[in-house]
């Protein structure tokens, strides 16, 4: 925390050993990048108030803005890709294969992205990943006949693989970009950008498709270029001694070391388990939401769009709430309480007597999930030492992707056998169980986060 003194961008500070830390040199970590002098100059006395730290932190603002643009572009791409598949192929498998192409590379090679994020410059990894995605998207302009649809499948796999390198590098960089006490709020903002993009992206993509179909792909490619440019302008300190030691080990050994670290860390295993179960519960709602709303409240496309807007507004509310709660509420309470509340909101959504209750429950779900997910990300970033942080974040990414895919499969199978309300109740019970587990099992991780936040700068 800041007590009248602003850290310089590359100034190191003593820091307690992370929970279950195994490195003998862990008491001398690399420098953390906080708010730079130019950021503090705008505030009288050189002290940046907590509420404005993230907005005035130039590097974080660039990261968040670039992520928002690239996520909007990705949503445009999804709309354009589904439309393209429908135009060139009438096979039901045509939509299933891209889903497998997206999931498989992230699960199989996801840990390799974390290794690269720990061995090389995380800034460089993010730039290369964004530029690679920009080029991959352009290959979709070549798809005009059913015989060329394999290009779309290859592009889907390539985009997923590039994302598996970008996401761990981004998440591992956050603790070096923002002050300790703003870490939860920073993760909440990152989560909110995904929901904002989910609201704006499909609309923008739809308009682009109406004007000229290739423009949607060009727009998505340009969005990744904008993200790469934003990352280029950021200031991120190097990964410390890991960069110097990168040539002394091989990639597969680094993967094994990362898995061994996770296996030895009881605290980290618990955080990852709660993250996986919470994703499994909340993810099951999305697949059946549209047919459920159509059946229960007679909702059409407009009503569903408004419901998605309510989800976005709730997420923005959660972003503001996590900033306030993170300053005085225990992490276990934030995660557990919000997941339990999200479970109740899912039940309310399932049995909503009217459209107004649907909107209120959806907004509440968005708020709760942003707070819980932002806090869980902060916990994983705090528990893992910097030299392991990329691999830990890649493990988180793999768990989320796998859990989301399992949730969709679970909802599809169960939804064909029982009414959607039963599926939602099962999802609510799973989400609530994750919340109760967080209250009981994450105290040690919360203590580690509290210790880091309490350290003077």
CATH class division of the largest domain: Mainly Alpha
Count of beta strands: 0
Distance between the termini: 6 Å
Strand composition percent = under 5%
Helicity, in percent?
over 70%
CATH fourth-tier homologous superfamily of the largest domain:
MFS general substrate transporter like domains
Low-confidence stretches: 1-49
Helix-strand category: mainly alpha
Q: Roughly how many Å is the radius of gyration? A: 22 Å
Using the coordinates shown, work out and report the CATH topology of the largest domain.
Growth Hormone, Chain: A
Instruction: Count the domains.
Output: 2
Q: What is the residue-averaged pLDDT?
A: 79
Sequence of secondary-structure elements: HHHHHHHHHHHHHHHHH
Largest sheet: none
Indicate the CATH architecture of the largest domain.
Up-down Bundle
Write down the overall geometry: globular
Descriptive overview:
By secondary structure, this protein is mainly α. The protein folds into two domains: 1-14 and 34-244, Growth Hormone, Chain: A (Up-down Bundle), CATH 1.20.1250; 251-457, MFS general substrate transporter like domains (Growth Hormone, Chain: A). The chain has 17 helices and no strands. The protein is globular, with a radius of gyration of 22 Å. Residues 1-49 have low confidence and may be disordered.
